[in-house]
């Protein structure tokens, strides 16, 4: 750490923060990365890792690998940020449970804070989701789904199981008809119906996949053409879509739902994957409350086109933690990360030239510096360029 340089603290090691880290020039700043996971996770291949098509290890990259390739040292702390103190420019961090020796909180100071903490799964307050359902966001979720999936199939293969129990165990339910839910239903189909047929021929025809969605159609944010294509494909693959169906409660072995005709029904299941979208993390909620006049969005942090947090000029935020006009995708987050790295380089150069101009320079030198300053004075806002959908 160079005491003459400003320190940027980066929260998170996801799409936004990792792309920022890869591009930031450490010549200009000290860098500290704080994240409860010390690796980047390539989320588009997470569904495939639940069924073993790809190995989890092949879709993660250690943050220390990224930091090792920088020209100057970056500090990496595997910890969770629990609080931000914008007045004193510090963050409080806590060890992750697996590393915890004893309860300990530490404070880390910053000149600039870059926040890329993403979002967490939304349960809409439905009881039992956390306890009995599986999310699909982190590596540990993929491991849990894989274990449950295989337990369901192996239990169904045990001798003496009743036909009802086999039916329940082999009923895989996905809640949420967004991109993640749809992708996962298709992935499960390929694995259970196609791949498993060789290993469990007696069970393959008994597997059933259902998708539950509260809205009138799946993929509401996509085009009608894609919706029709998906529905047609699912029909062919015998994946049942229950639209206008609201989950009211999740029990250990069954879901309680309100059907389109308002009747209450129960759906027995073996595996339940909950993919109903995102909500803000506790850290983001806490920060929103600190700026009641400028942070007025419930879906995330409000930032300007330079990713500066509205209401606090030393804090920047990007990715799923923010509420912007862009979709919450890795594609957006990684472009924002790249942009912010360029932004900070220009900011440094601009500030350095400003300092020079404050000093008494000779006429010729002053003219030269002023010209350079003109070139970097205006920092262009972020512009998203869509390169197609990975979904
Ligand atoms: C299954 C799945 C498939 C997807 N497929 C695609 C796809 O094909 N294409 C696409 O563009 N997008 C896809 N996405 C969406 C994409 O993953 C997200 O939009 C993207 O991860 C958002 O990036 P982020 O950096 O904002 O957050 P994340 O990538 O979620 O990273 C957040 C980081 O913050 C850390 N963190 C959390 N809390 C704290 C804290 N308190 N202190 C410090 N660190 C913290 C987390 O550990 C993590 O490292 C998919 C998502 C999922 C779940």
TrEMBL record:
SUPFAM superfamilies, per the entry: FAD/NAD(P)-binding domain
Keyword Membrane included in the entry's annotation: no
GO molecular function: NADH dehydrogenase (quinone) (non-electrogenic) activity
Record carries keyword Oxidoreductase: yes
InterPro entries: FAD/NAD-bd_sf (IPR036188), FAD/NAD-binding_dom (IPR023753), NDH-2 (IPR045024)
Cellular component annotations (GO), alphabetically ordered: mitochondrion
Family: Belongs to the NADH dehydrogenase family.
Protein name: NADH:ubiquinone reductase (non-electrogenic)
Lineage, highest ranks first: Eukaryota, Fungi, Fungi incertae sedis, Mucoromycota, Mucoromycotina
């Amino acid at each position: 750490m160079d005491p003459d340089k400003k320190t940027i603290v980066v929260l998170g090691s996801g799409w936004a923060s990792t792309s920022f880290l890869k591009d930031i020039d450490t010549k200009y700043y000290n860098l500290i990365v704080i994240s409860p996971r010390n690796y980047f996770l390539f989320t588009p291949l997470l569904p495939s890792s639940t069924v073993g098509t790809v190995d989890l290890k092949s879709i993660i990259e250690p943050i220390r690998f990224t930091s090792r390739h920088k020209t100057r040292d970056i500090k990496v702390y595997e910890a969770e940020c629990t609080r931000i103190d914008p007045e004193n420019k510090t963050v409080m961090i806590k060890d992750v449970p697996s590393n915890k020796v004893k309860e300990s909180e530490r404070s880390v100071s910053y000149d600039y804070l870059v926040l890329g903490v993403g979002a967490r799964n939304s349960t809409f307050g439905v009881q039992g989701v956390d306890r009995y359902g599986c999310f699909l966001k982190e590596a540990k979720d993929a491991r849990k789904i894989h274990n449950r999936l295989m337990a369901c199939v192996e239990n169904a293969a045990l001798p003496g199981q009743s036909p009802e129990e086999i039916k329940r165990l082999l009923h895989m339910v996905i809640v949420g008809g967004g991109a993640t839910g749809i992708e996962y239903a298709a992935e499960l189909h390929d694995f259970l119906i196609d791949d498993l047929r060789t290993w469990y021929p007696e069970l393959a025809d008994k597997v059933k996949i259902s998708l539950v969605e509260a809205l009138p159609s799946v993929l509401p944010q996509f085009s009608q053409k894609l919706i029709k294509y998906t529905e047609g494909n699912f029909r062919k693959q015998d994946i049942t879509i229950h639209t206008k169906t609201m989950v009211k409660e999740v029990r250990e072995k069954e879901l309680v739902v309100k059907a389109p005709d308002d009747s209450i029904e129960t759906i027995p299941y073996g595996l339940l994957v909950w993919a109903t979208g995102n909500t803000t993390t506790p850290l983001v909620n806490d920060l929103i409350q600190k700026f009641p006049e400028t942070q007025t969005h419930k879906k995330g942090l409000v930032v300007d086109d330079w990713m500066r947090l509205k209401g606090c000029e030393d804090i920047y935020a990007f990715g799923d933690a923010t509420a912007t006009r862009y979709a919450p995708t890795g594609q957006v987050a990684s472009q924002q990360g790249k942009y912010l790295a360029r932004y900070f380089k220009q900011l440094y150069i601009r500030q350095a030239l400003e300092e020079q101009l404050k000093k008494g320079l000779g006429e010729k030198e002053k003219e030269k510096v002023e010209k350079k300053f003109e070139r970097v004075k205006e920092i262009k806002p972020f512009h998203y360029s869509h390169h197609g959908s990975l979904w």
